[in-house]
Please model this.
Amino acid sequence: MLYRKNMGGKERAARLLGGALIVGCALTQIGFTPLGWVLAASGVVAGLTALFGFCPACAMAGRRPIEERR
Model:
């Protein structure tokens, strides 16, 4: 892999659930407007970070990979 995971299992599950809720709420409550699509895209990004287990923003902030915390 080209990256090291920097999220634990509980955080990944929370991000995946949150991303799905953001997408669902954005498209049902706001609709298929430009703002709805932007919010839905942010939910997709949150879901992808959960699936990969790596968050670039957390890496830039200095979060260590999971293996190095011990």
The CA atoms of residues 24 and 40 lie 8 Å apart. The helical segments are 9-30, 34-52, 56-60. The longest helix spans residues 9-30.
